[in-house]
Amino acid sequence: MFKKRYIGISLLVLIVCGITLLYLLKLNPFSASMEKPAASPVTGEAAIGKKSLTAMEALLLAYEEAKKISQEELLLIDLRSTDDTDSVQTINDGADGRRTAWNFSLGSAKGNISIAGDIRDGKCNIVQARKDDNNSLRKGIYHISDIKIDSPEVVQKAIKTLNMQPGNPLIKDDWVKGYHFAVYGALTDSNSFDTLLVLRVTGISPNSPNSNNESLRMNVFFDGRTGEMVSASEQVGYDQDGRSMWRKIESN
Questions:
Q1: Coil, strand, or helix at residue 68?
Q2: Residue-wise over 85-122: b if at least 16 C-beta within 10 A, else e?
């Protein structure tokens, strides 16, 4: 009788231990049996509700809005941040790679559709949509998947590597306020029409102002596919006709 009771108690203890172990495994975030949640798809919805956007967030939002108008695949022509906004701007704008105002243009590969718009404080507006059966419109070139970097990454590289400074809204000659960004195809060879997908950062040269008290801009270009810094230039002043003069600079 005691032997049967002992066996019964032992079985009960084993069952309780087993249930407890299963419960602990279920709670353990490192358990091999836990399924990893599926990653959320990357779409323009990620930018909804944000007033200040990175270059990629702005581009994704632009694509989402453009798809409501055209079912044809659209490619990037260019995307640029701008100071054309009613929002109050400061010297810190763009330091984190985000801006409240962007302009963009998209187009089909064959040149029959062109869409242009703007983004202000997180709201995307299509300001022009054109269709041309003769395919004479400006053609889109780059898929969104071609771009492997974003503005927060490149602005930090420009600041750290070249000591790029932000434009000061209190200085009229600074031209830009904070840091600005552009994504587009740049000509790298005057003898060729081939373009390089670049993400450009614009700010103020650390050598500004010059001896004539002129504010000097700086541009740093990154390969949009690799993130590599490909070139940089700074303004050195103006010629006798008032045109900007620039020089190429090397990274440290």
A1: coil
A2: beeebebebbbebbbbbbbbbbbbeeebbbbbbbbbeb
Q: Are 191 and 213 in contact (CB under 8 A)?
A: no
Question: What does the pLDDT read at residue 251?
Answer: 63
The amino acid occupying position 41 is P
Q: What pLDDT is attached to residue 191? A: 73
Report which residue type is found at 9: I
Spatial neighbors of 220 by CB under 8 A, at least 6 apart, are 154, 157, 158, 162, 164, 200, 201, 229, 231, 232
Find, among 183, 98, 47, the residue nearest to 90 by Cα.
98
Burial of 190 (0-12, 13-18, 19+ CB in 10 A): exposed
- Of the chain, the percentage scoring pLDDT greater than 90 comes to 65
193 — pLDDT class (breaks 50, 70, 90): confident
Name which of 107, 130, 108, 105 is nearest 119 in CA terms.
Answer: 105
